[in-house]
Design brief:
The complex is a heterodimer of chains A (209) and B (74). Chain A is of the alpha+beta class. Chain A has eight helices and ten strands. With 74 residues, chain B is α+β, with helices and mostly antiparallel strands. In chain B, 26% of the residues lie in helices and 35% in strands. Chain B contains one helix and four strands. The chains are: A alpha+beta (209), B alpha+beta (74).
Amino acid sequence: MTKEELIQATFKSIDKITVNNFTTLRNFDLIPDESSIENDIDVLIPKQYLSDVINTWKDNYVIYQDQNPCLYGAEPHYHLKNEDLGVHFDVVTGLYYRSSNDSNLFIKVNDKLEKSMLENKLGVGVNWLSQPAPEDELVHLACHCIFDKRKVTQRYEERMNYLFKHCKKEKLINLLEIAFYKTSKLIFQSISLGNSSEIYENYISFTDY
Amino acid sequence: MEHHNVNAGVVVLSSALLQNTRENQRLDIEDNIGEGIHIHYKNLRFDLTIKDFIELAKAIDIAVNELYGNNQPV
């Protein structure tokens, strides 16, 4: 089995087990050619399907859970690794981000974000089969940059600027408010002006509340 | 189970353990970014805007000066 075949078979199996109730989170363009142990494939799968996914793939992957502490309903990531073929699925059961106060600690921001992401996901006829709607992907990338990475890489800057053009603005504002409270207006403004690279600095230096 | 909104952007601005108290010793001041300043005092939480927090800090500073003058305890 090649790397691409394993990735394709895993996605098809996840799709079948979850009855299409999953989504790949980001960096789709890297799948499958640039997927590797380091360039993992981030997938959101609701918890009720996870044991079936693990049982199905336990002979093809080394499977383990992170040990990071989690709060407010967050749960550890599950990792499915095949070192021989260089395939690494990083599975989350919800949208959890690192706390600004303790980067080891994962926090669930709000059920509404993952509910929106799963309800509005888009089926795609390529390897990863399912990806978030533009508004959900953009808000996820903003959270990932601000909370997890504490910086905006050029890759994410370009993707956020691209996604903004395809977003329904009212829906985007609502989702940003859930994650960023009053800072959401400034973040929206920066992205709308094509300045997505500034959102971490905007966020961390905001004091008008 | 539904969870309420949780702010992942929390920065602890100061933290201390209260001395000589029989109750909770907690005294933490947090910036909940975009949301408000939280003062955790024993088992209470005060939610303040930044403007109100600054006014409170000024008022406490004035009160401490009034109480001790130049002989403030360390």
